[in-house]
From TrEMBL:
It comes from Acidocella aminolytica 101 = DSM 11237. This is Plasmid maintenance system antidote/antitoxin/XRE. CDD domains: HTH_XRE. SMART domains: HTH_XRE. One of its GO terms (molecular function) is DNA binding. Residues 13-62 form the HTH cro/C1-type domain. Keywords: DNA-binding.
Amino acid sequence: MHPGTMVRQDCLEKNGLSVTDAARILGVDRQTLSNLLNARSGISPEMAVRLEKAFGTPAREWLIRQLDHELAEVMRRADEIEVEPFHAVAGEESGES
């Protein structure tokens, strides 16, 4: 689930706030909040702090939710990411020459 959905549920709907009202409380413009709520942008560290100050959920939790979401998105396509496994040569593991 995109963290914007959680913001909508946990912050706006739970408190009966409109997007306009919540944007004013957070000190951001309506479009910025709308982009987050509609999964067009993620939660930045600054937005996480704003959410913590306004609604009480720690900024770290918002950022963890964002990171978990981003990692899940990448893992869905992990098979498409081509990387050659690294194999250290004996004696070079710690930067020896």
